[in-house]
Amino acid sequence: MRKNKLVSILAVAGLAVATLGFTASTSHAAVFQVRLYVSGDTNVEKMWLTELIPAFEKANPNYNVDVSSFDLHGKNDALTLAKIMAAAKLKKDAGFDVIEAGFVQELGLKGFLTIPSTSRIPNISKVPDSLMELAKGGIPYRASTVLLAYNSKVVATPPKTMDDLLVWIKANPGRFTYNQPSGGGSGYAFAQSVIDKYMTDADIKTLVNEVNKPLQAKWKAGFDVLKSLNPYTYGKNGTYPSGNAATLSLVSNGSVDMATVWSDQFLSGLKAGTIPSYWKVAQISGPALTGGPAMLGVPKGSRQGVAAQRFINWVLSPAAQNIIVGGTLNGYPVIPVTLLSEANQSKFAVGTDISTLRPGYLSSNSTDFKNQWALEVPGK
């Protein structure tokens, strides 16, 4: 874990700090610490620690951002969500000033986020309205989607629909895999997309936007299909890779010919040479694999809420968005592609619009989904 820098808040008698940009008339200036909670995969943690935070601190010398907690794959999301809500109700500090996690939307829905405004975060004006509405009080700051990766030496034409993919899996036993949904979003996306094939558009929209346990009864048809794939997926006995990295390892060593992968992780693997160049990716329809924005949120009661919003505003700047697109993560920007560097603009097709990516379920619903998958699907 990244060590905290020495943080001191200097009080100057008779002097009031009116703005974040204030510099004392002496040789000293206040140093503001922003405590960041990150829930995700190791590539997300690396982006924050080695790229975004150092760049922000260089541009803002009187700010210190510390990743005070990192939760791999969001395994403790439910506990952290409860902790933050309990702290807010008791008007206590939850220990975080900025949260990057899948439960940001739920915090917003329940009224536990500081609602962003253009006066504090001017750069949110660059983010599509549809994404801001989806965020429920959070702030989208990057995006990615899950894609179907395939070995082009073996698969000349990849499946175009979910039905086609399910047929291919059964026609090619052991050559397809997806990871346990609790271990990473690439496996979760496949499992949810199979489930959604048997749900109405209205049902899916509800599960994306609000907690709804009665609707979860409709998951059974999809879980039955997922269970029926046990003899045909990698291993052929109902066991699944533990996470995104384990899936990519099977891709890299040729153990499978097809798998669901995160767009950013796949591109990073190609760039690093860990994934062979003959591996390609495609999207399917009916339904498409899920994706969408990752979100930041400022919990109510944050002791550095104003500084946290300044940090988020920088994350939405072209400088930071270029790092997200061109750095370790290879993510999608949330600001217009035309605001990126020419090199990064060239990575996207004309008219690229991340607001069209199909989102996953709301955090509480996705937690229930992962738990039900573990009970219903793997081999016993």
TrEMBL record:
Q: Which SUPFAM superfamilies does the entry link to?
A: Periplasmic binding protein-like II
Q: Pfam families from the entry? A: SBP_bac_8
Q: What is this protein called?
A: Unannotated protein
Q: Species name for this entry?
A: freshwater metagenome
